[in-house]
Amino acid sequence: MKSSLRVFLYLLPAVVFFGNSVVIDVLRPSFRSGSHPHVAFVLGWMPNYLAGLGFMVLGIAILALAGDLTRDTRLPGLVHPFMLLMAAVTLLGLIGWELAQLSGRLVFDVHDVVATVGGVLTGYGLFGVAHRRNLLLARTG
Predict the structure, then answer these.
(1) What is the Cα gyration radius of the chain?
(2) Which one, of 7, 137, 140, lies nearest residue 67 by Cα?
(3) What are 42-62's pLDDT values in tens digits?
């Protein structure tokens, strides 16, 4: 695989999590004024979407790194179970955090749960594309 694509796979989690920080710290405070209610609505659930997506692309990066560092013949058979486990842990953790907000000072929102599921599904879709194109376990050349 080209080294530029490998670098992209390695840096993608950092880009997604940095984007999440930008949404939380810069964009959301800028659009709370009420002049753009639709933008404020999207920015309200965007961190949950990016969190789900971020953990899934982190799994993709881990698989790409494992493909580069090991020549274990069992690895191709473990990629789908690993990503399913990653999706399950991400969903349980992020939805559990959202449900824990029911009893606290933070705000529970069903849109946040839907956004989390959407982010995880998008990440799993990216994994499917990367796996079909042999981007995860292909040897660099």
Answers:
(1) 17
(2) 137
(3) 999 999 999 999 999 999 999
